[in-house]
Every structure is written in C-alpha cells, then in structure tokens.
Amino acid sequence: MPSNTTNFLQMVNFLKQRPNTAYYFNTSLHAKFIVVDDTIIISTGNLTETQFIYRHVASMNLVNMPDTTYEGTHSEMNAYYLSRNNPKLADELVTYFEVLTQCPLTHRAF
After folding, report:
1. Contacts of 110 by beta carbon, 8 Å cutoff, 6+ apart
2. Contact, 93 vs 38, CB < 8 A?
3. 105 lies in a domain?
4. TM segments (predicted)?
C-alpha cells in the first residue's frame, strides 16, 4: 500500500467503477502508461492528483531521515509523452502490457 493511502484508495474506487478497467501491480517495475483507443500517455511521474504540486514548503519531514527537515520549493513535475491517433504505438503498448501481466511478480488487484 502506498504511503498516501487516502488518494490511492480514491483512485482504486474510481477505476473499479469504470468498465473494461483492470489494475495490475508489480513491485519490481516502474512503468507508467495509459492507452485509450489510439491515444497514449507515457509518464515518468506517478499518475496522481498531487503530480502537479509546485509550492513553498516550510517544514517537510523526511520519512527515511526523521531528524532532517526540508524548507524550500516542493515540486513533483515530471515528463509526459502524449500521442494521439497512433495505432501502431498503441498496439505495441497493449502487447507490452499483456506480456507484463504474465510476469511472475505481476498481480491483478481487480
């Protein structure tokens, strides 16, 4: 379970209500992409609502360094690739996804 359990559970509940939607996870993999028809989004960042945060942080406690705090700009901006009307790439990513779902460390959550 991710550290931000509230947002994660909201995302899971949202996805469960959508037809033709499945959620898989693999703790050894860090791939992030979405394919809808012939539109593709590939991301370096987590696909969450906090992804576009850019703000001043007065005192941020670091989980792995409890005696350390941070003050400054907090940003979760990452790179995104968007391609529309690209059936070839969409098909390749669907095939890649299907291969990933068969990996021994991949689990289907729903």
Report:
1. 12, 15, 16, 22, 23
2. no
3. yes
4. none
pLDDT, one tens digit per residue, over 54-63 is: 667 776 677 7
Q: Where are the beta strands (DSSP E) in 1-110?
A: 24-25, 33-36, 39-43, 54-62, 65-75, 80-83, 107-108
Query: What pLDDT is recorded for position 32?
Result: 85
For a pLDDT cut of 70, what percent of the chain falls above it?
83
In angstroms, what CA-CA distances link 24 with 35, 38, 58, 102? Answer: 14, 21, 36, 10
CB-based contact 48:7 (threshold 8 Å): yes
> What domain range includes position 92?
29-44+79-110
110 and 83 together in one domain? yes
3-state DSSP percent of the chain in helix, strand and coil, to 5: 30, 35, 40
- Residue 97's pLDDT is 92
Residue 23 has pLDDT above 70, yes or no: yes
